[in-house]
TrEMBL record:
InterPro entries: RpnA. PANTHER family: PD-(D_E)XK NUCLEASE FAMILY TRANSPOSASE. Signal peptide: none annotated. The lineage of its organism: Bacteria, Bacillati, Bacillota, Clostridia, Eubacteriales. It comes from the Bacteria. NCBIfam families: T_den_put_tspse. Pfam families: PDDEXK_2 (PF12784). This is Rpn family recombination-promoting nuclease/putative transposase.
Amino acid sequence: YNMIQRTLYYWSKMYSEQIQNRDNYSKLERTVCINILNFKYLKNDKYHNAYRLKEITSNEELTDLQEIHFIELPKFNEIGNKEYIENVEKMDALEKWLEFLVEPESNTVRQLELSNEEIKLAKSELYRLSMDSKEREQYNMREKAIYDRISALENSRENGIKEGIEKVVKESLSQGLEISLISKITGLNEEEILKIKNTIK
């Protein structure tokens, strides 16, 4: 697969394309390349390996500007997620996403959906993308109807709040309270209060 060569090529391309001719090198920022592999590649049992530039003998890190990750899903599927099946609270962020990538319909992912909004959204998007065009259109229409309903409820709430404030202003005026005091109570400015006053019959 020439994964090492390809990875270094894509990393260097991402890194160098940050600046144009005559730009200052100081504009170059940390670049991280992440390889998610659906096959075993590296000769160790770890499903996640991360690399940076280091001095050969002292192991001193030269910089964190270059960072390359290899995530091997088959290794994770074999050893990475077994101990977390019964307790998703012990899973870190990477493990949660890898579980989703490996088996989005697993019981573990269903548990994660209850507490992790990002996983829930990703599962919903995966479901949407797996539909045919007709199903996707129906899904989008249902989603639009839900958003329209939420928007209508929000507008009703805002209108209710506005009506409540107007009622407070009218009652305060009828009791002879000063406009400056009413303004402090309601948050309305003097002009808005006078407009409400003019509607009182």
